[in-house]
Amino acid sequence: MKNKKSLAQKINVIRASVMGSNDGILSVAGIVIGVAGATTNTFSIFISGIAGMIAGTVSMAMGEYVSVNTESDSQKRAVMNEKYALKNNYDEEFDFVKNKYMQSGISEALSNKATKEMMNKDALVTTVREKYGFVVNNFTSPYDAAIASMISFPIGSILPLLAISLFPSGINIIATFIAVIIALAITGYIAAILSHANKIKSIFRNVTSGMLTMIVTYLIGLLVGMFS
């Protein structure tokens, strides 16, 4: 029977999707606006955007795969170390968990009772959770994260690519600029919800980075266009 994904695993996959979409929007927007600053040739702008989409999709997928694998390897190593510690220094591990509960304001008697009950139920899960902050065997699949990024990056890329290609040449840059800002505000908001961060700060940071990226690439494109 196939194991169901935990909420944490699902959230990590959603996070990879949101970040992949966000990077797709920002990366391709920077490319097409930069090229648009250098030339008004719609075909050249479109091809550069497609190339950026393909390269970014592969890069994001591989990056997520490597990143999640690295994190998973670190967690598995922590579990192995904790197994060894429980086997050779059980009392020390027991005291660590109990002292952590006491530091949070729980009385010694209650901390001792809670620690004893949880350690008797599953000492490894208890100590790993309290020492390292994750749940044993609750690892995010690197394949799921890679696939999520591989799908979401080109989806995010479509917005700036369509905006720069479909709008008339006189307004296509400003139209792309506005569309990207709106999209980045949305992905910033979703990212803040998933990470329990300040929504206003997250949106501001996302939108600001996007604006700077587009302005810089456009100015560079203008300079290239002037001397080409």
Short descriptors:
mainly alpha, manganese ion transmembrane transporter activity, 228 residues
Which helices and strands appear, and what pairs or packs with what?
Blueprint: H1 7-38, H2 42-88, H3 90-103, H4 108-132, H5 142-166, H6 172-195, H7 199-226
Description:
Keywords: Membrane, Transmembrane, Transmembrane helix. This protein is an all-alpha fold and 228 residues long. It has 7 helices and no strands. It has helices at residues 7-38, 42-88, 90-103, 108-132, 142-166, 172-195, 199-226. Helix 1 runs parallel beside helix 5 and helix 1 (7-38) runs antiparallel to helix 6 (172-195). The radius of gyration is 24 Å and the shape is elongated. The model has no long low-confidence stretch (mean pLDDT 88).
How far apart are the first and last residues' alpha carbons, in Å? 62 Å
Instruction: Work out the strand percent.
Output: under 5%
Low-confidence stretches: none
Oligomer: single chain
Proportion in helices: over 70%
Major sheet size, sense and barrel closure: none
Number of E-type strands: 0
What integer is the average pLDDT?
A: 88
Shape category: elongated
Radius of gyration: 24 Å
The SSE order reads: HHHHHHH
Structural class: mainly alpha
Total of DSSP H or I helical runs spanning 4+ residues? 7
Could you write a compact summary of the structure shown?
This protein is mainly alpha-helical and 228 residues long. The protein is built from 7 helices and no strands. One of its GO terms (molecular function) is manganese ion transmembrane transporter activity.
